[in-house]
Amino acid sequence: MQIPHLSKRLEKVASFIPKHSFLADIGTDHAYLPVYVVINGIAKQVIAGEVSDGPFEIAKQHVKKHQLEHLIEVRKGNGLDVIGKEDIIDCITIAGMGGSLISNILEQGKEKLTHVKRLILQPNIAAISIRKWLINNNWELKDEDILKEDGHIYEILVAEKGNPLTPYKENEKEKELLFGPYLLKEKNDVFQEKWKREYMEWQNIYRQLQHAKETEEIHKKKEELVNYMKWYEEEFR
Hints:
With 237 residues, this protein is of the alpha/beta class. 44% of the residues lie in helices and 22% in strands.
C-alpha cells in the first residue's frame, strides 16, 4: 500500500502520537493524518471527526481509497461530539485551528477526556490560550515544537495529565505562557523569527493605540503590549 505524503506540519504532529494509540483526530479535514498513522502502524484505530460537509465527504473517500474503513471511522460532528461513550480513545490530535477555538473545543468536550492520556495540539495562532486552558484543567505541558512551512510558522503542544505547573518557573509563568516554556529554553531560529515579527506588530499596534481615545479596554491592551515588548527585549536583546 502506498504511504501518503504528509505536510511537514502534520508529520511533526504524527511524531508525537504514541505507538498503538486509539486516536481521535478532530477537524480531520481530508483525513490525511489518520490514513498516515494507520498505514505506518502508529495508531491502531482512529476516529476522524469533521464538521464541514465537503471535507467530511473527501475524508470518507480518502479512507475508502486506502481500504481502511475497518480501522478509520470518519464521523461528522462538532469538536469532541464525535467521540461516543463506548469509544476508548487515549490520544487526541487537533491541528490547524486557532488557539482559542482549540481551547473551546476542549472545554466543551471535557467529559470526553476521562480516558485520554495525551493531547497533541497544533494552533495556527494564540497558543497562549491553550497553555492557559491546560493549566486550568490539570493537564501538564510535556513538550513543544515550532516549525516553518510555506511561509507560515506553527507551534505544536503536547500535554498529558499531571501537575500543570511543572514546566513553568513561578516568577516567569506569564512570560512562559506567551512564549512557551520549552520553546523559550531552546530559542531556535524559527522561534526567533516568529517573535521578531510579533514584536514589530506589537510596536505598530501600540503606536496606533497612543492616538486612540483612552478607555479602560484601550488602557488594558496597552499595558499588555508593554509587558509583551518588555519580555521580548529581556529575552532577545
